[in-house]
Design brief:
The protein has about 270 residues and is α+β, with helices and mostly antiparallel strands. About 35% of the residues lie in helices and about 30% in strands.
């Protein structure tokens, strides 16, 4: 069989094209075989990730449910606290000229706040005042008589209100609440009598965890007229400012029956 040169060239080209097609097919097969296990592995990873996401969602939902349950219990405790407190912490009656005080358990104590509550019984024949004043740090906290006679009260540049303050407490049973509440960049100090705010001040850049000195006894204490009324709280005015790296000032809250003390000190008197 005779072939022309043109026919031979065409046959060679067809054979070359067929070989290229076959090689391409074989290479594609090898690639397909390599892709198959990769697809399998990807599918396994997708299923595993999906299961993990589901598990994480279940854990998160469970945690949220527990948090909501805890929050509901906490709110219920706060709502019932005044009733429980009044029922279980009754004051023992004393003679009519005796002042009595008892520290109450305070709810909602968190790292960002400090709360102390005192139940007071003020006799008719003995006027009682709650007082607030700022002074230089005293190494040992003295009794309230010292503060009644103290004259070196300071106007602190750190506090928004540092003027000497007093509020008369009328005869009868009362609840006195003292709070320090930390907020971003500031610390608030407040005094409330029977739930009504009577004094408030604050200072900025407050340092954390001040060392406070306060009347911590939980049993009822009684004070006849000849016995000085108690000191309630002394707390440092601690700031992070360089000028106050060492605490130099503190404030004190105390009780007094010396009704003339603030008249001579130019304080903020409330009756």
């Amino acid at each position: 069989m005779n072939f022309s040169l043109r026919s031979l060239i065409a046959i060679v080209l067809l054979i070359a094209f067929a070989l290229m097609t076959l090689n391409g097919y074989l290479a594609a097969g090898r690639i397909a075989r390599q892709i198959h296990p990769l697809r399998y592995q990807i599918g396994m990873l997708e299923r595993e990730l999906g299961e993990n996401d589901s598990k994480r969602r279940q854990i998160l939902l469970h945690a949220l449910e527990e948090r909501e349950s805890f929050h509901a219990i906490y709110e219920e405790v706060l709502a019932q606290y005044p009733t429980i407190r009044d029922r279980n912490h009754q004051m023992v009656p004393r003679p009519v000229d005796i002042f009595s005080i008892k520290r109450m358990p305070a709810p909602g104590m968190l790292p960002s706040n400090f709360i102390i509550e005192y139940k007071l019984v003020v006799p008719v024949e003995r006027p009682v005042w709650v007082r607030f004043g700022v002074h230089t740090v005293i190494p040992e906290t003295p009794n309230s008589t010292f503060f009644d006679q103290h004259m070196d009260w300071r106007q602190s540049p750190s506090l928004t209100n540092s003027k000497l303050f007093e509020q008369q407490i009328l005869p009868g049973e009362h609840l006195l609440t003292i709070r320090e509440d930390d907020h971003p960049g500031r610390r608030e100090i407040s005094i409330a009598l029977d739930g009504k705010l009577i004094f408030e001040t604050q200072y900025s850049d407050a340092a954390s965890n001040p060392i406070r000195n306060y009347n911590s006894g939980i049993s009822q204490s009684d004070f006849p007229r000849q016995k000085p009324l108690p000191h309630l709280l002394t707390s440092p005015i601690s700031t992070n400012t360089p000028n106050f790296s060492t605490t130099k000032e503190a404030y004190t809250i105390w009780l007094s029956d010396d009704s003339d003390q603030l008249k001579s000190s130019g304080g903020n008197r409330h009756e």
